[in-house]
Amino acid sequence: MITERGMFKVEDQLKRAIDAGARVVIGGRRPEGLNVDGYYFEPTVLVDVSDDVPMSCEETFGPLCPIYKFGTEEEVLRRANNVSVGLAGYFFSRDIGRIFRVAEGIEVGMVGVNTGILGSEVAPFGGVKESGIGREGSRYGIDEYLNIKYMNIAF
Q: Residues 6 or more apart from 140 whose CB is under 8 A from it?
């Protein structure tokens, strides 16, 4: 973790999820016995996580991975899009039709399909909703610093 405040946010989100009925499958605490300074938290996987807890609708920026069950594409998209943030979304599928439907339907700025890696210097980085406006990186990152002027001259 980068800051103590970030560590506290992860711990608070985890506690609130557990209080609402989530179960920790692995992780869930600060590792013991580290001989280094910093903020460390074990990668944590949870199941039975409610849609109403903060980790389900806020950006965490920490090693919490809630796993949700769903029945249909429509249900999972409705649940995923029913939040005020939209930086990135990730999913796995072998069905090319599903890949395009879900990637187009999820309201995020970046989509990882069959991978957890999105970052690259040539890829635009940014979100939608309360996760930001515009993009960083790639050729699109310069757009925020430019003013485009249109000129039409007739003779």
A: 124
Segments in the chain below pLDDT 50: none
Question: What's this model's pTM, rounded to 2 decimal places?
Answer: 0.84
String of DSSP letters for 81-148:
HSSSEESEEEE--S-HHHHHHHHHHS--SEEEES-S----TTS-B--EETT-SS-BSTGGGGGGG---
The answer to whether the beta carbons of residues 20 and 52 sit under 8 Å apart is yes
Three-state SS at 65: strand
**Type and span of the H or E element at 73:** helix 73-81
Per-residue pLDDT of 103-114, as tens digits, reads 999 999 999 999
Do 92 and 114 meet the contact criterion of CB atoms below 8 Å apart?
yes
